[in-house]
Write a structure and sequence with these properties.
By secondary structure, the chain is mainly beta. Residues 141-190 form the LRRCT domain.
């Protein structure tokens, strides 16, 4: 006989029989009785059609065998009264449940057979504490090779016990594959989701994050109270708390910029002009240091900060009929007007990005297609290059990168929003997302996960996840946010958060959660 038949010769040698505990009446032992459905010898028992696992078994029994049993569950601690077991055999049964600690308390168990029991999975800790195992037989089962079985693949690669080849029955892509040959890397068992972490009782428009004095901060624009609210992380209470504010009127954007360790905040307002504030660390408050010229910036809608070479800039998108989208440059003492762009076009959004290593701006407008400007080193100004075709009425454009490729998300209030990819000389259509009442389509990278979040004034916000194999976004999760206007990722204390502004409801903070399906 070959090696494969040796365990069965051993089974035949043991001829497992079930014994019962010595019952005592006073101090006199009572002769053990074998359950009616078992055949017993001195040390062994063979049980067919057993109605349950007997609990009255002598502690020195060597082996137990169950064939075609009537019970469907092996409960926790089923063999605690038989610590001397060396062989345990279950075959041709049908089990619905095997508890994690079903075989606990068996330090001497050498042979375990769970063959032909119609098993689709096994609990993760089933072999825990079985340090003497030399043979495990799991053949003849209909294993579902999903994340719940990932641990078995890892265990097979590390155990010293002999395990005969076993195969997957499902899912279809794994059918008939040898489990012994699988790698744990083949199982993608980590999923993510956004769950509500904290609610802030006020409406908001812009949300931005910034690093300052070795900590992460968040600033939120409140349009109805006219405030810029500054939040910091409370390491004791484990939540975000308000620590300061800048009070104005009809505030639409609060944009932070840190230059040489000094914090400045550009506050854009619909009425009363826009201003620049400086954080005074000695007075521990914000001080207004500069007004932004009201003749150019009449109705600000978006602000973008950026750096080219050693120089710092910010640009304000102006959405009025008579305003100018304008670039401002830092001169060491303040910001001055550097260049006016796109006069009379009612710009709603501005995005800074690099394409092929060169600085660019994309201006979105309610009156024409998005326009791309490129930085000219000779004149130190932006020069118009071209429009983005077939994308009229784009409210905003935001970019992201996947490896070396540049993509943009274009938001439409009515019609399809789009994802486009840079093709070398122009942006090309990649994907359309149905949108209704959308004013934000924000790409976000959280650790190794790339998302795009499409807000809506009339329905749920859609979160999309970048599928690397398909090279496009797939639907991921729905969020219930009233009239969202901006999203920002904040990473702090090894936690990742998503801030979601709301023009009509409460500002929400979501926690980015990773779930291991194999755990």
């Amino acid at each position: 006989m070959g090696n494969a038949s040796r365990p069965f010769r051993r089974i035949a040698y043991f001829l497992c029989l079930l014994s019962v505990l010595l019952l005592t009446e006073g101090k006199k032992p009572v002769k053990p009785k074998c359950p009616a459905w078992c055949t017993c010898t001195k040390d062994n028992a063979l049980c067919e059609n057993a109605r349950s696992i007997p609990r009255s078994v002598p502690p020195d029994v060597i082996s137990l065998s169950f064939v075609r049993s009537a019970f469907t569950k092996i409960p926790e601690g089923s063999f605690l009264l038989t610590p001397s077991l060396q062989l345990l055999l279950f075959t041709s049964n049908t089990f619905d449940v095997i508890s994690d600690d079903a075989f606990m308390g068996l330090p001497h168990l050498e042979y375990l057979s769970l063959a032909n029991n119609n098993l689709q999975s096994l609990p993760k800790d089933i072999f825990k504490g079985l340090d003497s195992l030399t043979n495990v037989d799991l053949r003849g089962n209909a294993f579902n090779c999903d994340c719940k079985l990932k641990w078995l693949v890892e265990w097979l690669g590390s155990t010293n016990a002999t395990v005969e080849d076993i195969y997957c029955e499902s899912p279809p892509e794994y059918k008939k594959r040898k489990i012994n040959s699988l790698s744990s890397k083949e199982f993608d068992c980590i999923i993510t989701e956004f769950e509500v972490f904290q609610s802030l009782p006020y409406q908001s428009l812009s949300v931005d994050t910034f690093s300052y004095m070795n900590d992460e901060h968040v600033v939120i624009a409140q349009p109805f109270t006219g405030k810029c609210i500054f939040l910091e992380w409370d390491h004791v209470e484990v939540m975000f708390r308000n620590y300061d504010n800048i009070t104005g009127t009809s505030t639409v954007v609060c944009k932070p910029i840190v230059i040489e360790s000094q914090l400045y905040v550009i506050v854009a307002q619909l009425f009363g002009g826009s201003h620049i504030y400086k954080r005074d660390i000695f007075a521990n408050k914000f001080i207004k240091i500069q007004d932004i010229e009201i003749l150019k910036i009449r109705k600000p809608n978006d602000i973008e900060t950026f750096r080219i070479a050693e120089d710092w800039y910010f640009v304000v998108a102006d959405s009025s009929k008579a305003g100018f989208t304008t670039v401002y440059k830092w001169n060491g003492n303040g910001f001055y007007s550097h260049q006016s762009l796109h006069a009379w076009y009612r710009d709603t959004d501005v995005e800074f990005l690099e394409i092929a290593g060169k600085p660019h701006l994309i201006l979105s407008s309610s009156s024409q297609r998005p326009v791309i400007y490129q930085w000219n080193k000779g004149t130190n100004e932006f020069v118009k290059r071209f429009d983005i075709q077939d994308m009229e009425d784009a409210y905003a454009v935001k970019h992201f990168r996947v490896k070396e490729d540049v993509y943009i998300c274009l938001t439409r209030f009515i019609g399809d929003s789009k994802v486009m990819k840079w093709g070398g000389s122009a942006f090309l259509d990649l994907q359309r997302m149905p949108s209704r009442g959308s004013m934000v389509f924000q790409p976000l990278q959280i650790r190794n996960y790339q998302y795009a979040i499409l807000g809506s004034d009339y329905s749920f916000t859609q979160v999309y996840y970048w599928d690397a194999e398909k090279a496009k976004f797939v639907k991921f999760q729905e969020l219930n946010i009233q009239a969202p206007r901006s999203f920002i990722h904040v990473s702090i204390d090894k936690r990742d958060f998503l801030f979601a502004s709301s023009f009509k409801g409460t500002t929400l903070i979501y926690k980015h959660v990773r779930v291991d399906l194999s755990a």
